[in-house]
Amino acid sequence: MGNLMLRGMVLVTVLLALAGCGKPAGVHFFEQGQPATLDEWHVLRVRDGRLSLNDGVVPYDLNTPLFSDYAHKLRTVWMPKGQAAGYQPEHAFDFPVGTILSKTFYYPLPADGAGDGRSVARTPPSQSSLQGESLDLSKVRLIETRLLVHRKEGWVALPYVWNKEQTAASLQRTGASVDLELVAADGTREALAYQVPDQNQCAGCHVTDNRSRRLQPIGPKARHLNRDFDYASGRDNQLSHLAEIGYLKDLPAPEQVPRSADASNPNVALDARARAYLDVNCGHCHSRTGPAITSGLWLDAPTQDHLKLGICKQPIAAGKGTGNRLYDIQPGDADASIIAYRIDSDDPAVMMPEVGRAVVHKEGVALIRQWINELEASCDTGGEGQPGITGPPAV
Q1: Is the previous residue joined to 353 through a cis bond, with omega within 30 degrees of 0?
Q2: How far is CA 320 from CA 317, 341, 351, 354, 365, in A?
Q3: What are the extents of the domains in the chain?
Q4: Pairing of strands 119-121, 176-183
Q5: Alpha carbon distance 252, 89 (integer Å)
Q6: Mean pLDDT of each 10-residue bin along the chain, 395 residues long
Q7: In the 8-state DSSP scheme, what is residue 37?
Q8: Which residues have CB under 8 Å from 317's CB, separation 6+?
Q9: What is the H or E stretch that residue 100 is in?
Q10: How far apart are CA 143 and CA 163, in angstroms?
């Protein structure tokens, strides 16, 4: 009798274990330390040839994404149960301690399906490879996943690099270099030494306040997230969705929420597209609080002063980065404008942004050049030799 009861108990234990085999462990937030593998966090999981999200991990996208060598990005947010981010109209949301933001950088494979491990497609982020909030690993090349983790002492950045088999990602605190080749739709190829930043380099973008020198999120701001997203449950506005699932509190009425433009949409006003592009690519540094505050060039969305935006503004420091040009922006003349010169360069001593890319964003350069060329203003010099604007610039 005793043996039968023991066998029955063992059988029940085995059945319970088998029943739970297919259920993934919940997200694990580490209050301290630096886990060696991405899998330990249980934010993303590889199963049946797909990269998918764990329960409670919510994807999001930006109206205009920051350019990163044509890489596509799967962005996600997770918060502890019962916690929510506080809405802010201008800055990144006030995320609670315990929040995990992830950003997975990947490339679609070329149309010919070349799986040589080096060739990747050069396509715009609008051509998303997401299908039901997951990625088919037979159609993409995973490069890295960056975590931004909100601990009691502040935000911590952790870069994880995927192996060639696309089965696991390991922590690379010192960064990494990945040799790739961008393949355009017309078949042209461009070599790319993709750089995974080390932990210190993450501060180059994520320290958005030059006084506190603390890491902060960049992308999850109201103006960037105010757009629709194709969730597995259906299409919905991202901000409304986050509020509905309890991840965002104090969301105002829709008409009170700012929205940045999609810089790639030709049907949107040129000025709105250019400002959105400069905001997301340059504004976290070039702002009234950012590391480039001393430059006097502020390119974030809240800035409206034409001189601070660089129009008819001479640079604070001359040098190779000016290309012997007089103004940051010479209205009507992109060739004479420092900004156009610097974003069109891949020379480390010239290019802007200084980090985060190794190749030129051709479409972004074309947009900013068109915007500058259509600005209607002229620069003159006042009695003290300072540049000025005769008439308001317009496009």
Answers
A1: yes
A2: 10, 11, 10, 14, 19
A3: 25-256, 270-390
A4: parallel
A5: 9
A6: 42 39 81 97 96 97 96 97 96 97 96 79 90 94 97 96 97 94 94 88 62 82 97 96 98 96 97 97 86 87 94 85 93 97 92 88 97 90 48 50
A7: B
A8: 295
A9: strand 100-108
A10: 8
Nearby residues of 279 by Cβ (< 8 Å), 6 or more positions away? 64, 223, 260, 299, 300, 301
Rounded Cα distance between 393 and 205, Å, is: 30
CB 242: neighbour CB atoms within 10 A? Answer: 24
The CA–CA distances, whole Å, from 50 to 338, 354, 394 equal: 44, 34, 48
What is the enclosing helix (H) or strand (E) of 369?
A: helix 362-373
**Residue 370: burial class (beta carbons within 10 Å; 0-12, 13-18, 19+):** middle
Distance CA 163, CA 39 (A): 13
Q: Among 288, 302, 297, which residue's Cα sits nearest to residue 327? A: 297
Tokens 């001393």, residue? 294
Q: How many CB atoms lie within 10 A of CB 34?
A: 12
Per-residue tokens: 330: 């010479």
Residue in the block written with tokens 């600005």:
375
Residue type, 298: W
- Strand segments, DSSP code E, in 152-267 are 154-162, 169-171, 176-183, 189-196, 228-231, 234-237, 248-249
Classify the C-alpha dihedral 162-100-78-216 as positive or negative: negative
The CA-based angle 50-61-99, given to 5 degrees, is 85
Q: Which amino acid is at 273?
A: R
Helix (H, G, I), strand (E, B) or coil at 274: helix
**For 109, which DSSP code?**
P
Give the pair of three-digit tokens for residue 157. Answer: 């950045």
Q: Six-digit token pair at 170?
A: 């390991």
Q: Cβ-count burial of 324 within 10 angstroms (0-12 exposed, 13-18 middle, 19+ buried)?
A: exposed
Total residue length of the chain:
395
Amino acid 280: pLDDT? 96
Look up tokens 């400069």; give the residue.
278
